[in-house]
Amino acid sequence: MSVRLTVTQRSEAGGASGKEVVLDDSVITLGRDKTCQVVLPQQAVSRNHARIIQEGTLYFLEDLGSAYGTKINGKALPKGEKELLRNGDVIAIAQYDVRFDKVVEIAPDVSDKTSFLARGALKDAMRGLAGGEERFLRYMNGPREGQRIEISEAQEHVFGRDEKEADVILKDDLVSRKHAKVRRDWSGTHVEDLGSRNGIKVNKKRVNRKALKDGDELEIGATRFVYVDPAEPPDEPAVSLSSESSAVVPAPS
């Protein structure tokens, strides 16, 4: 799978000029240095400013300790943390906006039938890539960042602060003794609040119980997780009819 990055440079006059690139690298670096796949030639941009990292079918954004920071959809990205990228997300670096989209390349036959078949082929391919891999929750921040909690059939995980009552211990004053549980059964994977004081959030919204889908973000206290289901095809990826993969080098202002 490739990604399409659309780079727009904002100007003081309010106008904007954009360039587009399609890349299939597992790590894409954005910065001022000419070795970056996406070169943003402004002094406010660090030499190696940020990077996009592919993990399976998911993509994450990480700031590389830049001087002036990175924003995603208008919110500052904390240094040292990764943020899940979804189609249409906008990465802001200095005066540049970089729109992110997953793409799948198909032959330039634009008939509805061809487009439908291409989407079907992609979904079949994604199911094949799963190869029996287990579903899991990935820690998105904190000392366990990058670690996984495997979610198996008919298995329940209780999250909380109490070492005797919880399976997943979260040492956090915002977390109750028995805070929430995640369980998978025949109907799917669900998260449920267990009457906690501060609740749980899925994709930034507070919920009591919710089915989890591939790419959903779960927040319990200060800890963030992303749910990964390798067998679940991505939602309607963008379709690219171009195979261009050169670096983007917008003209300096």
Provide tags for this entry.
253 residues, mainly beta, Tumour Suppressor Smad4, 2 domains, 7-stranded mixed sheet, 6-stranded antiparallel sheet, 1 helix, 8% helix, 43% strand
Tell me what you see in this structure:
By secondary structure, the protein is mostly beta strands. The protein has 2 domains: 3-102, Tumour Suppressor Smad4; 136-228, Sandwich (Tumour Suppressor Smad4). It is 8% helix and 43% strand. It has 1 helix and 23 strands. It has one helix at 112-130; strands at 2-10, 16-23, 27-31, 38-39, 50-55, 58-63, 71-72, 75-76, 82-84, 90-93, 96-105, 135-139, 148-151, 155-160, 168-169, 180-185, 188-193, 200-202, 205-207, 209-212, 217-220, 223-228, 238-240. Strands 1, 2, 7, 8, 10, 11 and 23 form a 7-stranded mixed β-sheet that branches. Strands 13-12-22-21-18-19 form a 6-stranded antiparallel β-sheet, with no helix packed on it. It has a 5-stranded mixed β-sheet with strand order 4-3-5-6-9, with no helix packed on it. A hairpin with a 2-residue loop joins strand 18 and strand 19. It is elongated. The two termini are 33 Å apart. The model is unreliable at 125-131 and 237-246 (pLDDT under 50). It comes from Corallococcus exercitus. Residues 229-253 are annotated as: Disordered. Residues 237-253 have a biased composition (Low complexity). Residues 28-77, 157-207 form the FHA domain. This is FHA domain-containing protein.
